[in-house]
């Protein structure tokens, strides 16, 4: 019983760490690739499009 | 006489902006440098660097070459 | 439908925007802080508000100004808040007139009444409102005073049709306006009269907008006819007419008592723009900043933090893991991966905050514009102008906003050169690398060594600009005009906020991307081509790092560890330190110091720092360069140059150092 609990704890901790790590990596690359918006504090709720390139 | 002939602290009236570059002329107009305005030379940077002038209580930095094409009286 | 904030540069639009929307956008005391539109929502009312870069008129001369004009041309707005600097009424009203002609409801926020009064001008808001026919609300944008009244006025005026003002421009121009307006399509933004006037004035954005819809030659012909009848440019005539109208407005609404100079500003300027001591003062200030960051204050604080991470925090975490019954794998993941990687970067928070504090101080005080002026002579010699120094200073914090800030440079070629030079400005993400290596190998001369790296970055940036300006990007029409705003004593709250907003990004990055990166890197050290839990030297990371290691060995750091750290550093430069922490299997920086002392010599460490400084802009900067130059060619060139230059200089440093006899 105790062994099973420990097993569960390991899976939960490990799973959480890897899931979070994966999410942050994807998000970082996506955000960085946007360039201009990476420096903007309003980026999260901004509805305008950054950049004036036409 | 041109703007750069003024002594530091001296005031004069702009007679003509003999500046060829359109963008620069526009910018100076935006900042209120135009015929009939009082200008004061506030400082000049060394080695032929920019000068600092005052118009309408607003300080502006511009290059000496361009300041030399602003005629004053 | 947006409520749009328009106004001259440096009149407090963003401060007002922050008050209205409860955001913490970047503010500063020079012209051109905001270079992109920012969207927020009016507190409690749910109305979207957009903050725009400052403009003197609707005819843009630079890229950031184009953003504001384009907004009017392409986005519908329900109301315009025009923020007017009471101490510079004449020049501000030139923009106001054009906005009133546009025909959208306008509310004027009269800011800097206090500065105006100190200068000897008192503006009567009620009279001004009567004269202009729109509400005028006095505000103090820095403190938020008057924002409630402003919000009420905006909500009342919003979406109600408002007659545009019509100034009489005289027979010739009025005739031309009528004839142009007749030909304009009905869907033209704003009032037709406004559109016609903007076209007559030679607004290129307006022309470009119309050009996409129909043939412009008849309109251009009308303009030409008019100019012939006038005997000079229509723009000049329109400007003069507006100026007369404004003179009358001022005569009716502002009382000028004695014109008084701002004594504090005069006194400070007498010193910092002095022809002999101006430049030395700037350099001395920079030196003090470095000493404080790396020597007097930053390093002792970082050492304390380090002691905490490596001692109590690690103990506590490992006991917690033990208690939950975590397996060796999880323990290694947390302690050797996450704590080493994230903690290794976080210990440098004190240095980074101190640096950000001084950058904020520079931005907020008004000294920034003076630095641009003091530096102009030197910048002119290399084919740039003094204004390019502002993006460079911003670049010391982060290269991305630096690249964006280059928008304020009017000349396209000068702007491009500034963007290409920017990645060599040593951003705060490179600071942990210096702090770690200089702290290990040059403990006593740490500040000096780091200072030399910053200087090297500037020298390379300027040298490259010189090269470009004399070859590919020859430029005869260099342009430099800069507004020098009055100094103001930075408010403690604003200063703290700008420091925090910049530093927060670093901490957030440590908690997100660097966390993720550390986990990934640790995993790469854990698995190898021949199984899991392999010795470090047989890991995947070693294989990847080993690919480029031979290339780097002439530079003095041919171990796979250095190669691996550099590759991961492309994603974000802080990760160089995280990777090293994880690779060298120690839980804290002080242990790491011992390990890297065995792997590097002082000379190869310096060579490594030089390489990290120069080698490539990080991913976010590359993306920003791509967006701002609009060209992959220049972006790839920028990366290529960086790699080449870094390789050459590191090689030179290491080989020359060896010959001279450094260890």
From TrEMBL, chain B:
Transmembrane segments: none annotated. GO terms for molecular function: transition metal ion binding. Pfam families: FeoA (PF04023). InterPro entries: Fe-transptr_FeoA-like (IPR007167), FeoA (IPR052713), FeoA_core_dom (IPR038157), Transcriptional_repressor_C (IPR008988). It comes from the Bacteria. SUPFAM superfamilies: C-terminal domain of transcriptional repressors. Coiled coil: none annotated. Residues 1-73 form the Ferrous iron transporter FeoA-like domain. This is Ferrous iron transport protein A. The lineage of its organism: Bacteria, Bacillati, Bacillota, Bacilli, Bacillales.
UniProtKB/TrEMBL annotation, chain C:
PROSITE patterns: G_FEOB. Mg(2+) 1 binds at residue 22. Keywords: Cell inner membrane, Cell membrane, GTP-binding, Ion transport, Iron, Iron transport, Magnesium, Membrane, Metal-binding, Nucleotide-binding, Transmembrane, Transmembrane helix, Transport. It is a multi-pass membrane protein. Pfam families: FeoB_C (PF07664), FeoB_Cyto (PF17910), FeoB_N (PF02421), Gate (PF07670). Probable transporter of a GTP-driven Fe(2+) uptake system. This is Ferrous iron transport protein B. It comes from Geobacillus thermocatenulatus.
């Amino acid at each position: 019983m105790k062994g099973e609990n420990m097993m569960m704890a390991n899976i939960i901790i490990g799973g959480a760490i890897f899931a979070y790590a994966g999410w942050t990596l994807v998000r970082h690359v996506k955000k960085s690739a946007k360039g201009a918006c990476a420096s903007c504090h309003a980026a999260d709720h901004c509805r305008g499009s950054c950049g004036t390139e036409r | 006489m041109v703007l750069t002939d003024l002594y530091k602290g001296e005031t004069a009236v702009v007679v003509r902006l003999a500046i060829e570059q359109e963008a620069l002329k526009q910018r100076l107009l935006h900042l209120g440098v135009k015929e009939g305005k009082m200008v004061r030379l506030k400082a000049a940077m060394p080695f032929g660097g920019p000068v600092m002038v005052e118009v309408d209580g607003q300080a502006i930095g511009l290059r000496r070459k361009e300041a030399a094409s602003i005629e004053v009286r | 439908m947006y409520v749009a904030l328009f106004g001259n540069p440096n009149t407090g639009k963003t401060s007002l925007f922050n008050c209205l929307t409860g955001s913490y956008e970047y503010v500063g005391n020079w012209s051109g802080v905001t270079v992109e539109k920012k969207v927020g929502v009016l507190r409690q009312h749910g109305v979207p508000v957009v903050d725009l870069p400052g403009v003197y008129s609707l005819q843009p001369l630079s890229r950031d100004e184009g953003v504001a004009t384009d907004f009017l041309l392409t986005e519908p707005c329900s109301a315009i808040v025009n923020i007017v600097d009471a101490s510079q009424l004449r020049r501000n009203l030139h923009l106001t007139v054009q906005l009133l002609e546009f025909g959208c409801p306008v509310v004027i926020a009269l800011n800097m009444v206090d500065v105006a009064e100190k200068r000897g001008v008192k503006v009567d808001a009620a009279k001004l409102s009567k004269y202009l026919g729109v509400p005028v609300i006095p505000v103090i944008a820095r403190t938020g005073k008057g924002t409630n009244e402003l919000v009420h006025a905006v909500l009342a005026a919003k979406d109600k049709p408002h007659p545009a003002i019509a100034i009489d421009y005289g027979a010739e121009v009025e005739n031309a306006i009528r004839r142009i307006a007749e030909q304009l399509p009905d869907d033209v933004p704003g009032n037709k009269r406004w559109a016609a006037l903007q076209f007559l004035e030679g607004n290129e954005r307006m022309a470009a907008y119309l050009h996409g819809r129909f043939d412009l030659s008849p309109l251009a012909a009308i303009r030409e006819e008019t100019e012939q009848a006038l005997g000079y440019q229509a723009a000049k005539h329109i400007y003069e007419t507006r100026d007369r109208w404004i003179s009358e407005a001022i005569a009716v609404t502002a009382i000028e008592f004695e014109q008084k100079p701002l004594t504090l500003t005069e006194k400070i300027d007498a010193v910092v723009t002095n022809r002999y001591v101006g430049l030395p003062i700037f350099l001395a200030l920079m030196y003090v900043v470095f000493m404080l960051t790396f020597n007097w204050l930053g390093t002792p604080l970082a050492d304390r933090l380090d002691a905490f991470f490596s001692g109590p925090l690690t103990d506590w975490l490992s006991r917690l893991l033990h208690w939950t019954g975590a397996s060796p794998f999880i323990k290694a993941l947390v302690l050797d991966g996450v704590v080493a990687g994230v903690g290794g970067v976080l210990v440098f928070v004190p240095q980074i905050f101190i640096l950000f504090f001084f950058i904020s101080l520079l931005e907020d005080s008004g000294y920034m514009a003076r630095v641009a002026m003091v530096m102009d002579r030197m910048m002119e010699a290399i084919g740039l102008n003094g204004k390019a120094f502002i993006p460079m200073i911003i670049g010391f914090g982060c290269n991305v906003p630096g690249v964006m800030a280059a928008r304020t440079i009017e000349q396209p070629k000068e702007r491009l050169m500034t963007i290409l030079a920017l990645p060599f400005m040593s951003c705060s993400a490179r600071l942990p690398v210096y702090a770690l290596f200089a702290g290990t190998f040059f403990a006593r001369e740490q500040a000096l060594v780091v200072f030399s790296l910053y200087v090297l970055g500037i020298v390379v940036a300027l040298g490259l600009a010189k090269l470009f300006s004399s070859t590919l990007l020859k430029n005869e029409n260099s342009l430099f005009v800069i507004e020098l705003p009055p100094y103001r004593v930075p408010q403690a709250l604003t200063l703290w906020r700008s420091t925090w907003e910049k530093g927060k990004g670093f901490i957030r990055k440590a908690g997100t991307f660097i966390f993720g990166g550390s986990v990934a890197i640790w995993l790469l050290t854990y698995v190898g081509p021949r199984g899991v839990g392999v010795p470090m030297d047989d890991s995947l990371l070693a294989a990847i790092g080993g690919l480029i290691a031979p290339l780097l060995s002439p530079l003095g750091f041919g171990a796979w560890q250095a190669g691996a750290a550099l590759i991961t550093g492309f994603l974000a430069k802080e990760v160089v330190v995280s990777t090293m922490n994880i690779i060298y299997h120690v839980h804290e920086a002080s242990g790491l110091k011992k390990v890297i002392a065995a792997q590097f010599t002082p000379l190869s460490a310096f060579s490594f720092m030089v390489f990290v400084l120069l080698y490539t802009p990080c991913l976010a900067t590359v993306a920003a360069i791509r967006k701002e130059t609009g060209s992959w060619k220049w972006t790839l060139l920028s990366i290529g140059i960086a790699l080449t230059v870094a390789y050459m200089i590191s090689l030179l440093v290491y080989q020359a150092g060896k010959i001279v006899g450094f260890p």
